[in-house]
Amino acid sequence: MISHGFILTAVSLLAIVSVAALPAAAAPPGYKLVWSDEFNGKVGTPPDPKSWTHEMGASGWGNQELENYVDDVEHSHIVADRKATGKRALQILATTDGHGSYRSARLKTAGKQSFQYGYIEARIKLAYGQGIWPAFWMLGEDIGSVGWPSCGEIDIMENIGRTAWWGQNRSSLHGPGYSGGNSLHGDYNLPNGKYFKDGYHTFGMLWSADSITFSVDGVPFETRTSNDIPGKRWAFNHPFFFILNVAVGGNLPQSPDATTLFPQKMLIDYVRVYQLKTSSTA
User: What is the pTM assigned to this prediction?
Assistant: First the structure.
């Protein structure tokens, strides 16, 4: 499947490589900003077409999802938000007609913005509810020629719309021989019973050759290296593009129910890419 999904199975985490904590909303020392979208455009306008395109359709997306992804302004546009860094944010909206039909948006930078290595961070306030499935993730730009999972998939932020998950982020790596329920993944739980729906949080990834570390609000919680998959190919040493979406239903969150409130919105304050000062964009 080509998805931001995973199958909920018990997978033992391999040894975590210790790393210094990354400061929230700040790049590690020696890194410079090479690209960002601050989503500070005119309120009511769609995301910047120089960076983002819409994927559309109601094909289920390999996960039996229920939504129809559309490209209208209602479901993805710039909004005013005093809690966002620039007082504006990108809103992705999921809606229903009340009769089992759902609409949402899925945005990607494929063919426009791709990157290899660096510190990547997005500040996001999540949608929530039974059956709601927000994500910030990446796919290898060679997916058209090699397919999934050979292209590699990096899930920086993935949240399953069940009450027990409202405070939990899962970050995952999918590649040949370690995808789906066998992905390399780890979970981060917000302290003190807090939920991601109640405010913005930063979801980060420090990415170098043969190593990836995930963080939330500057706190690293999972490091994976090529040593974690002996005899298998590490699928992350080449350029990747971004995807932002809010799915509805599917194998993991299952369907919305009477407790699910619509419309649901995910707010993205910014997406930023930093690279070492001796590096360049891919």
Answer: 0.90
Chain segment 62-96, per-residue pLDDT in tens: 999 999 999 999 999 999 999 999 999 999 999 99
Name the 3-class secondary structure at 93.
strand
Instruction: For residue 20, tell me if it sits in a domain.
Output: no
Residues across the chain: 282
Residue 205: closest CA among 231, 233, 232, 169: 169
Distance CA 61, CA 78 (A): 26
127 with 246: CB under 8 angstroms? yes
Residue 67 among the catalytic residues = no
The yes-or-no verdict on residue 180 having pLDDT over 80 is yes
Known active-site residue 141: no
Torsions phi, psi of 277, nearest 5? -60, -15
CA distance 138 to 110: 10
Catalytic, out of 38, 67, 158, 222: 158
In a domain, 101, yes or no: yes
267 in helix, strand or coil? Answer: strand
Query: Does some domain include residue 281?
Result: no
- Active-site option among 121, 141, 153, 222: 153
- Pairing outcome for strands 219-225 and 211-216: antiparallel
